[in-house]
Each structure stands twice: as C-alpha cells, then as structure tokens.
Amino acid sequence: MKNTLIKSIACSLIIAFAACDSEEKVIDKVFDQVEQGAFLRIVSTAGTVIDVNDTSSTFTMVASYQDGENNTLLDHVDFSVSITDTEVSGSDISGTALVETLPASSFTNNEFGEPTTTFSFTYGEALTALGIDQADVEGVDSFEVVWEVFTTDGRSYTKGDASGDVAAIGGYYSSPFFYAIAFKCGLTDTSTLFNGDFEVVTDTWEDYSPGETLPVIPDPDDPLSFRILSTNNPYIFNPDTSYIKVTVVDGDGNVTLASNECFDYDGFICADVTGDGTINTCTGDMTLNLTFAGIYDGYVLQLTAAN
Fold this sequence. Notes:
Elements: H1 2-34, E1 38-46, E2 49-51, E3 58-67, E4 74-84, E5 95-103, E6 108-109, E7 115-122, H2 123-130, E8 142-151, E9 156-157, H3 164-168, E10 178-184, E11 196-203, E12 213-218, E13 225-229, E14 243-248, E15 254-259, E16 263-265, E17 269-271, E18 273-279, E19 286-292, E20 296-305
C-alpha cells in the first residue's frame, strides 16, 4: 500500500509537470505567432445556422483582439461574407463582399484587458452586400464570415495568414480568421424532400452495406414525418409491413423516430426501433441514432439522397 501510494504521488507529479510543460508550449506557439501579427479570438457565436428562406436570420459573434504589444496596435477590423456556389445550375453566385468595418473605438476592454466587440449581420444584409438574389442561393452552398485585422503600423492579417498552430489550437486561443455558417431550409412539408431512394452511408447495426438503397416515402398522416421502408432489409421476416417513422421536431432538423411494429429478426428477436437524430432540411441527408428493443443502443444510420 505504501509503495502504491508513493508511486501514485510520483505519477501525479509527472503528469502535472507534463501538463504545465504542454500548456507552456501551446502558449509559446501562440505568442511566437503574436510577435508577427495580431488576431481576433472568438469568444462566442449565435445564429450559426441561417434559414436560407428567411432574410431576417441573424449571425452574431463576440470577439476579442490580441497582439504582442499589450493589445495596443488595433486600428480596425473588416468583416466580410463569402459564398461559394457548390451546384452551379445557372450563373455562378460565388463571391466575397465587405459587410462592416469596426474601428478600434468600437472595442471595449474586457476583464483581461483585451479589446472586445460584438459583430452581427442579417442574412438579408449579406445578400445585399454580395449583390445576389435570395432565390439564387441553395441550401448546399457554402457560406462563411471572414475578417481582416488591421494594425496601426500598417499591417493586416486575415484568413490564410495565421499559422496552423494559432488557427487550430482551439479553446481560448481559437483564431481561424473565418467562421463557417450552415444553411437550413424552412421545412413545413417533407413530401418533396423525402420521397425516393436514399443511399446508405453508414449502418453500424449492419442491416445494410454502404451504397445500398432504402426507399423513403412521405407519411400520409403528418406533413412533417416520413417513413423509411424496410423493403430491402434481408434480415427481417416482416420487410413488407415494417418501417421507421421519422418526425421533424424543430426548424434546425432535429428528429425523433419509432418503428410502426417490431423488426422480426428470424425469431431471434422482435425489436422495436426508437431513437433520434438530425436531418439536413435543405438536402435531406440524415444521421439517425437507433436503439433496438430498448437495450441495444448507440447504433447509427446515415443516409443521403440517391442520385
């Protein structure tokens, strides 16, 4: 017991010293970068999922400025929006446009002496800045906020300027100089988006292999529900009558699910299927967390609309 205690104390000290050393190395990396420039630290964000059909959707970010000169070099920050047209069906709407410039005077010091500010914009303001129509944007397009920090000695830093260490450290020193915003599509009826074959990406319960397809149909009793049919399931005795009903519970694409009857696995078990998950309300892609018979949980079914 005594030797065990001594070893435990020794191990604890080693871990503590290692943690301190690791922390110092992280901070060293940050300040090595800071000596060459300046950055904004992301404090918090809100509205990171924008409804592609709602121009009043608002993104907000609180950020703090840091540099290697006691945070005294800030001149101004330019905030821009960027969109990448990932499925060009007509004209390519890809582009970047300035949304707002915040001077140093709009920053106030927080409790750590870091100049801090709040930046926000509506989806409509972003469209106006980009000079594109709302109807031209699709939910699969890529949308992000990019900022450029200007210092009083004439330097500037933006996306691509930060070293991998500063951009990817995460946590307190997170500073990638951009923030990706997801789109959602206001979904009031699933009948169009969820009507056809869906391809299996992952099925950890292993009823299906990647690439196999499952038929999906609207639920005739509920416009915000759809059914994943068991027609192609080779392991159950009741593929023609059983299905999983998926119900959309909010505008962000969270869903609940339940089978209409138990899945009869050849007399081995007849398992009711329940769970939850998320759907992409623009593309229909879904990730479902499945529980079988109330005890076999943690299984994931990922589906994407088949071409």
